Amino acid sequence: MKKFRFSIHGNKYNVEIKKVEGNIAKVEVNGTYYKVELEQEVRTAKTPQLVRSSVRTDKVLSKVESGTFKINCPLPGTIMSVMVTEGAEVNKGDTLLIYEAMKMENKVLAERKGVVKNIRVKPGDNILQDELLLEIH
């Protein structure tokens, strides 16, 4: 549980609290185990603590200085059909293309309103994860 280092009258002690039940603590002092009676009971939380993994900041929607948004492939797969052409206006939620990944058809949707600037893929292309599919301006 917890480890401590004490120095009493020049003598050094390594103390580790192994377990606390009610008002009895099981401790190890320099390799010797003891049962210690506490004056008052140590209260422990019965609610489990939630430990979350750290947030990744490297996978963020990429924005170029000119206001162009890059649409990258979320999973590796094969392009089945491209639903837009260069210069086409799209609204948020419009289907841009359909690709097959893991034996499932997946739609890539526009995340914002804009004009399709550059299409980098065509039907039949094999694509990798995070590969650039198209750009919206």
Reconstruct the topology from this structure.
Elements: E1 2-8, E2 11-21, E3 24-29, E4 32-37, E5 69-72, E6 77-82, E7 89-90, E8 95-101, E9 104-109, E10 114-119, E11 126-127, E12 132-136
Antiparallel strand pairs: 1-2, 2-3, 3-4, 5-12, 6-8, 6-11, 7-10, 8-9, 10-12
Quick summary:
By secondary structure, the chain is mainly beta.
Can you walk through the features of this model?
- With 137 residues, the chain is an all-beta fold.
- The protein has two domains: 2-37, no CATH class; 69-136, OB fold (Dihydrolipoamide Acetyltransferase, E2P).
- Helix content is 0%, strand content 50%.
- It has no helices and twelve strands.
- It has a four-stranded antiparallel sheet, with no helix packed on it. The chain has a four-stranded antiparallel sheet with strand order 5-12-10-7, with no helix packed on it.
- The two termini are 56 Å apart.
- Residues 60-65 have low confidence and may be disordered.
Feature tags:
137 residues; mainly beta; OB fold (Dihydrolipoamide Acetyltransferase, E2P); 4-stranded antiparallel beta sheet; 0% helix
Taken together, the total number of domains comes to 2
Q: Tell me, what's the shape?
A: rod-shaped
H/E topology pattern? EEEEEEEEEEEE
| CATH level 1 name of the largest domain | Mainly Beta
CATH topology of the largest domain: OB fold (Dihydrolipoamide Acetyltransferase, E2P)
Q: Helical element count? A: 0
Mean pLDDT: 83
Weakly predicted, low-confidence segments: 60-65
Number of strands: 12
Helix content: under 10%
- Trace the largest sheet across and list its strands: 1-2-3-4
Q: Strand share of the residues?
A: over 45%
CATH architecture of the largest domain: Beta Barrel
Structural class: mainly beta
| CATH H-level superfamily of the largest domain | RNA polymerase II/Efflux pump adaptor protein, barrel-sandwich hybrid domain
